[in-house]
Write a structure and sequence with these properties.
The complex is a heterodimer of chains A (341) and B (333). Chain A is α/β, with parallel strands linked by helices and 341 residues long. Chain A is built from 13 helices and twelve strands. An eight-stranded mixed sheet of chain A has the order 6-7-8-3-9-10-12-11, with helices on both faces. The longest helix of chain A is centred in the middle third of the chain and has 18 residues. Chain A is globular and about 70 Å long. Chain B is an alpha/beta fold. Chain B has a single domain, classed as Rossmann fold (3-Layer(aba) Sandwich). Chain B has an eight-stranded mixed sheet with strand order 6-7-8-3-9-10-12-11, sandwiched between helices. Chain B has a four-stranded antiparallel sheet with strand order 2-1-4-5. The chains are: A alpha/beta (341), B alpha/beta (333). At the A-B interface, helix 8, helix 9, helix 10, helix 11 and helix 12 of A face helix 8, helix 9 and helix 11 of B.
Chain lengths: 341, 333
């Protein structure tokens, strides 16, 4: 029972008026307890949709079509909306890309962090009215305040009792992301999903946030799913990395092996095409073409039109299954199919 | 390449300052000033690609806009030099000279979704600089031919000419923007974060394309980016900006061993794929506000090596090695 998260053959489609967008198309993924998993992919590869479907936050016209999401052995897709509310924020929480638009500008930072705490730890359920009424109970207010202060000081906000009374616009970008993290960890979740948490931040601030997340993980033993298009960020933070492309999982490998010996042709090409600091001189190789349309994806392997190893008659007809190699690496590519058999 | 060796400059930027007002009060007047660019001096040499790097709000985009004359500096001057010895002061010229200079400059902006007019076809977008910059004697069919040739140069075939921007992906749009910047035969290209909004698998295509075109057309380029790896890949010389000032200027070969504490932390903060156990210097706090920048060295509030002198005296850019300039009290002896 060490599996924290077990996603099996998940399909999430968006039914738009232009056609069905297969954002996540048969993804199977496992996450052990205490493990940091990185999900890498370009925009439109389905990484954010994957994250949102774990929390069942997919909205119209999107729909989870089939599959299973087992969290500690329980299928999240079979839960009622009420049960899900108890899980979101308490056992699985999420940090979004843009802290500016995910914080409410008209509530103080303290109120917003306190909301999660009062909902999950004091069972102040329901609408804002209940919440306001609860605020008249002195002892309760003080307790929530203490927890907010604790959460804020954990994420390195200095002078939390003053700053919790401030509004999001008074916080800088890095500080807002810290407040988001404080909110996410305030209820000590088992799983933290971070969707591009540092993409909008400057590099020096990004280093601070990554350092903070590392520190929190050690302290609270929370497993983190880090979603990013930046392979550098993932390589420093994650034990395992999953590479997604056009709604499919192409490769799941531990971090060192992925960078030393990438198996899937897409991973290989991607690694050769990103400029790395300190490697000046070599010309970058490029991946020809562009990411496929998700409404009319190519038949067979979705990467085959851009792949230099493609086998005609196979890759353009049959979608490759995700297979496990001897080394424990999972890869979806026809080149390794024979090796496996 | 010969020009690069001679070190002859195309642009000379001398102590340029640009402050933006923050207006307040009932009768709006400037109550505070944002010190966007605060005394910047450097040269852009003919034939080189100069990379300007820094965090958001450090004034790199404003510097770019000042150089091409989209903003007027409050102080200092920017000189454009022609090979025949003629000089133009960008912030003073107007009329015909201004238009002439404009024809020598091409610009590629960050977001290709915003910088192409959605109601124009690709061929009209690319042809517009030709229509504007005195190519009156070129016939329409000749212009169209030039447009197709330029589209081919950036890797787009003729079928794109009649399309509209919404039919193109981000990478293709950026190719169109590059074609538009190059069609009037400029000498200088300003590329302001041209790959920041482009997907990783396409980014290297655009970077290589820009690199090829720069050498093919013998262009000088000012490449602005916040991404050190991109800057290192494309530039010949690198300038690091912090809060409106240049703190380090170095040729790319010397940049890996940068000397200014800010450049060092910046480099150490870049996550490099495949290097897990990297020692990082983690700075405290965020970049101070540009409204009231700290006195003395602007970096002293976050610098691990700050001394009392740094709080009072502003360090000057000094040359420590050939072509390698640093503004830091640590290196003054």
């Amino acid at each position: 029972m060490s599996k924290l998260l077990d996603i099996r053959n998940l399909r999430v489609y968006y039914y738009t008026r232009y056609g069905v967008v297969k954002a996540v198309d048969g993804v199977s993924l496992e996450m052990e307890k205490g493990e940091n998993l990185g999900v890498a992919g370009e925009s439109g590869s389905g990484k954010s949709t994957l994250a949102l479907s774990i929390l069942r936050l997919i909205r119209e016209p999107g729909k989870i079509v089939s599959g299973k999401i087992l969290f500690n052995g329980e299928d999240l897709l079979k839960k009622s909306e009420e049960e899900m509310r108890k899980i979101r924020g308490a056992r699985i929480s999420m940090i979004f890309q843009d802290p500016t638009s995910s914080l409410n500008p008209v509530y103080t930072i303290g109120d917003q962090i306190g909301e999660a705490i009062s909902l999950h730890q004091f069972n102040v359920e329901g609408g804002l009215l209940d919440w306001f009424l609860a605020k008249f109970k002195r002892s309760y207010v003080r307790e929530v305040e203490d927890k907010v202060k604790e959460a804020l000081s954990l994420v390195g906000v200095s002078d939390p009792s003053k700053r919790m009374k401030e509004y999001p616009h008074q916080f800088s970008g890095g500080m807002r992301q810290r407040a988001m993290i404080a909110m996410a960890i305030s209820c000590r979740p088992d799983l933290l999903i971070a969707d591009e948490p540092t993409t909008n931040l400057d590099v020096t601030i990004q280093a601070q946030i990554l350092d903070l997340m590392n520190h929190l993980q050690e302290e609270f033993d929370v497993s983190i799913m880090l979603i990013s298009h930046n392979l550098g960020v993932l390589s420093e933070f994650c034990h395992k990395i999953a590479i997604m492309y056009a709604g499919n999982l192409l490769e799941l490998s531990d971090t060192e092996t992925l960078f030393e010996d990438p198996k899937h042709p897409y991973t290989e090409a991607l690694l050769q095409s990103i400029p790395r600091f300190g490697f000046k001189g070599k010309r970058l190789s490029t991946i020809p073409g562009k990411p496929p349309s998700l409404i009319n994806p190519p038949l067979g392997c979705k990467f085959h039109p851009r792949c230099k190893y493609r086998i005609d008659g196979v890759c353009n007809k049959i979608p490759p299954p995700l297979i496990e190699l001897d080394s424990g690496i999972k890869v979806a590519c026809h080149r390794y199919l024979e090796e496996c058999q | 390449m010969v020009c690069k060796m001679s070190g002859e400059s195309l642009f000379e930027i001398r102590n340029v300052k640009k402050y933006f007002p923050i207006k307040g009060g009932i009768i709006p007047k400037a109550v505070e000033w944002v010190h966007a660019v605060d005394g910047v001096t450097f040269d852009i040499r003919r034939g080189e690609t100069f990379g300007l790097v820094g965090e958001s709000g450090c004034g790199k985009t404003t510097t770019g806009r000042l150089i091409i004359g989209l903003e007027k500096p409050d102080e200092g001057k920017i000189v454009f030099k022609e090979p025949n010895g003629r000089t133009y002061v960008i912030n003073e010229i107007s009329g015909r000279d201004r238009k002439y200079i404009a024809s020598k400059i091409g610009v590629v902006f960050q977001d290709p979704h915003l910088s192409l007019n959605p109601r124009m076809r690709i061929k009209s977008i690319v042809r517009e600089p030709l229509d504007i910059h005195g190519h009156m004697h070129t016939s329409k069919s000749e212009k169209d031919e030039l447009v197709l040739k330029m589209l081919e140069n950036v890797g787009l075939d003729a079928s794109y000419a009649n399309r509209y921007p919404y039919e193109l992906s981000g990478g293709e749009k950026q190719r169109v923007a590059i074609a538009r910047a190059l069609i009037a035969n400029p000498e200088f290209i300003l590329a302001d974060e041209p790959v920041s909004s482009i997907d990783v698998s396409i980014r290297s295509q655009i970077l290589n394309l820009m690199k090829d075109l720069i050498s093919q057309f013998k262009l000088t380029c000012l490449f602005i980016s916040h991404d050190l790896s991109v800057i290192e890949y494309i530039s010949d010389r690198i300038g690091v900006m912090y809060l409106g000032k240049i703190v380090e200027l170095a040729p790319v070969e010397a940049f890996k061993d940068a000397l200014h504490p800010y450049s060092i932390t910046l480099i150490s903060a870049v996550p490099v794929p495949g290097k897990r156990s990297k020692k990082r210097i983690i700075l405290k706090g965020a970049v101070p506000s540009a409204i009231n920048p700290p006195p003395g060295c602007r970096f002293h509030t976050r610098c691990p090596f700050a001394t009392p002198k740094c709080k009072k005296e502003e360090p000057k850019l000094i040359e420590v090695e050939k072509d390698h300039l640093i503004a830091c009290h640590l290196y003054e002896q």
